[in-house]
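Predict the 3D structure for this chain.
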Amino acid sequence: MTKERSDTLSLLKADLNQNRLVEAVQLLADLHPADIADLFEALDQHEKKKLFRELDIDTASEVIAELSEFSQDQILADLPHQRLGEIVDELDSDDAADLLASVPKEVVEEVLASIDVEDSREVRRLLAYDEETAGGIMQAELLAVPQEATIADTIKHVREHGKDLEGLANIFVINSRKQVVGQMSLRRLIISDPGDIVAEVMDTSVRPIPVEMDQEDVARIFQKYDIISAPVVESDGSLVGRITIDDVIDIIEDEISEDVLRMAGTHEDELVYGDQIWKISRFRLPWLLITLVGGLLTGYLLWLFKVALADAIVLVTFIPVIMALGGSVAIQSTTITVRGLATGAIDLRRLGRTVYKETRVGLLMALACGLTLGIAAEIWHRNPVLGLTVGTSMALVILVASLMGTLIPVAFQRLGIDPAVSSGPFVTMVNDISGIVIYLSLSSAFLKYIAG
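Done. Predicted structure below.
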């Protein structure tokens, strides 16, 4: 937050604490709704509720659409249903559906019954779709014209119905069955002759999005084809909504946050629940328990090799570096693989190419690190066999870690499990176990030369 925002926040808190509510609202008068939302996020629950009650309906509807789910839930907790209905009536259909998704069903019914019938019907339809599909993120508001219309007819239609439509970039063209057959950008509309028929000048390369498509796939299509907006269609091709680039930006941000949090062994809802420490702990604890189990198994393996370690205590000095390098390589490979699967850069149908590449990279790193550690071990302890054993172990551990970091996320993907959950604590546990087994097994084989 900039100094200007920090100063505004201090003044805002002071006004709220002293119940100078008119002054508090005036502080927000010239700010963009997104900036107001940033200030709201820095307030406590009581302050949020007090300030939100004072906002006019237009400002309240714009601000609540910009807030995090956590702040929305705090404000909606005891918001009068009549005021909620007034706010929902001002929102775009997709924002209204997102807001009502976390509200009890009986409240949703009461709110939808209080707003315009057509708006209510659109929101109900959006609420029926899975929130992570194209249907769940689309908005019902759009402009569509029949393919036999003229450019003059289309311009008139835009003027009559497009005034309140945000993010208008394309007008979709439909046939008699309401199926999308093309689209027309505003630029094309302006430069075309008023007497031209839409079907003759429209862009037929439009890419309709199936209503059940996963939101990640939607984002990939927008990115691949540089799309600003796209029509959403039912299985029969009929037009039901549109998705705009601002929706896709939100998807990308959400998916990246989700993957990063899962790779850290926690959950995206941790951002939603803010300071609710019990719920946050419940998200983190399962993965920490996996790490705990992995640590106990690693300790048990060390106990099994206690004879080798007792006879050649020098072996203990290289366990940290072997485990650390192996873990680092595994996390690197896993991160690259998870990201490649998420963006589509890694194709499961051509998995062999990816494994071949990671094998070569892993082999090169294994030779470099293994040789370096082996030379260091020989110089340090004046034992060539020790150097050879440590260096070979290091090379094998890195090679195995590189392959595991690639294959484990792919295996999760094939099983229908988000590959992001395969990294972090899980890979660390598997890598620790395999690293100890490789190192101490090889050391035991040459123990008499090392101990002697």
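The mean pLDDT is 88.
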